[in-house]
Amino acid sequence: MRETALSPDLAPDLKNHETAVTLNSHQALNAAIQTAQASEVDQKFIAAALSIKELAAINEN
């Protein structure tokens, strides 16, 4: 197997690529966290709405 040396002028491009991949990974993780947090808020909102609906039904009877 032949080894290939990295051209010095390609090194900055490789570093930029690694940085971009890392940033994209962090952005994806942050988006997933935000989605999960939004989902929690939605679940709490739905639970509260159902509780209000149940209380309204009790008050009607």
Account of the protein in words:
- Helices cover 82% and strands 0% of the residues.
- It is mostly helical and 61 residues long.
- The chain is rod-shaped, with a radius of gyration of 26 Å.
Low-confidence stretches: none
Fraction of residues in H or I helices: over 70%
Instruction: Determine the mean pLDDT.
Output: 75
Alpha carbon gyration radius: 26 Å
Strand elements, count: 0
Q: Let me know the largest β-sheet.
A: none
The oligomerization state is: single chain
- Count of runs of 4 or more consecutive helical residues: 1
Order of helices and strands: H
Residues in β-strands, percent: under 5%
Principal-axes geometry comes out as rod-shaped
Give the class from helix and strand content and strand pairing. mainly alpha
CA(first)-CA(last) distance: 83 Å
Describe how the helices and strands are arranged.
Elements lengths: L10 H50 L1
Task: List the defining traits of the structure above.
single chain; 61 residues; mainly alpha
How would you summarize what this structure contains?
By secondary structure, this protein is mainly α. It is built from one helix and no strands.
